DNA sequence: AAGGGGTCTAACGACGCCCC
DNA sequence: GGGGCGTCGTTAGACCCCTT
């Protein structure tokens, strides 16, 4: 905010109009620049000379006189460009601000916690230097006390030296699983200095970058004032960030808070400037038989086992910190918050999507993980045309999405959308004329079975040939046997009929034993993906082959099912004289009829919302019609656990999503660990 | 020792906002 | 309207670590 100060009263003293015993008025003018100016704030308005930034959770407001007020006339001769006049004098405002502060903090006495550094400088005693040096270790780290004391011991032993050489390394195991552990280690290698080493572990957002950063940080923590050190690390990333930030020390808070692990990096640069350190980072190649690096690597692996993690206390930066986001009061999310927010948002969107009642026919498939979402995403995004956008592509995509969300315009959906155009009652499938014409019926329809069966065996043979010719994985035996045994290419009439003859009050469920039905809805079944995962070792190869195979498979399946259904449905529509023209004009014809009596203009707005409301309730709360809203029994809190998993461990949330039956008890070790040393609460 | 998986960056194109 | 700047999504590539 812009900094305003009271006008210098000496100017007013000479003014005869103020020569009175009454309280002097408070005139505020913009500050022209002072030590409080925050240069890191980049302002658009060049007229503002002095800006201050301060972290507050409450603002005290006081009133000012309006420009038109009589009071302003008294100051007209001062020729001030920009000023405000408070309705209350300065001392009154200061007094009320102080009492608000006391009331807010619920205190009567304030104990100063700051120990003045200038007082200590007189006695340059060793103990005092140690005390100053280890202040960051004591206050900036959150860990068990024995870790702090071991760091302080190292700092004491390093105190008489200035030139250091370190090898550092980080290590992360089982990344992307709930068992991920990250550790780091370093050792001092200058032969004239005690060759001490250190290792530790950390939690939250494990990545090798975080481990390596923490290794550098702990090195800097133990260095004495004015020390020089060379750090040999194998992380190109750390070196880049280090050099980049070193060259541009005045970085805006917005940019700073986007840096991953900014708590660690802020502390690193705070130490460099306050402890006057000279640091050089040197790149070494990992696993290149470098003795120091190998030892650091071993230390990092050892540190990984440690159950006592080291964290940064964000409150160390209370002077400069803006409001930081935390995860459920556990720990600060010290990375680009906008990027990170994508994770919970995506998982929530996914959870809402799979909980949608339209997908209830494949509810079992979703809960049992029968659908491979990774390949499904690739397939939905697959563009068979050679241009990025086209009408053709739009039609392909719209058909894919409608079919996959069970919203393809079948009888029941058309009846919902055009209630006056289609006949009342159940619209039966025009091909089998037994069951209702719905999205889920398409795979179960007995009319298509004779055509589907040869197609399945044709593509079974095609898959066997493809894998036999192109497989790259080490094990290639029993290809034929496995594919022959898979349900993927089997048509089981009994199971299909059982699914069809479901209780009419419950919705039809697609049988899990017939995964090929999922392909009709453009969802890739796990039963098919597993062959590609097993027999193709390269990631891009298996995607390419799978998409190609699926593309042909789905196109032929669609021809004999969806296309055939659509043709016969069109004939049926024609027999009832339902044409495309009528559908297109349906809304157009509807709306004038509603507004037809325009004679009473004040009456129409009352009618319109009422009618709309009735339509809404008709489809969402009437259980007889197919599309009433109902809760699907998928855990609503799943998205929270997926995100938590992503926060505590690593990897994409999708990797945790695929084990949908996730056990909440797996968090208890982390929770007990957190409880054990009283985590920061913000 | 090879390969997969993860993290991270740079580069690119596209787009929106702000200011001149 | 155009330039500057930031944002977003995607892709390629480099690197490291772990697993097999």
Automatic annotation (TrEMBL):
SUPFAM superfamilies: Ribonuclease H-like (SSF53098). It holds the Pfam family RNase_H. One of its GO terms (molecular function) is RNA-DNA hybrid ribonuclease activity. Residues 160-305 form the RNase H type-1 domain. Coiled coil: none annotated. PROSITE patterns: RNASE_H_1 (PS50879). This is RNase H type-1 domain-containing protein. It comes from Rhizophagus irregularis.
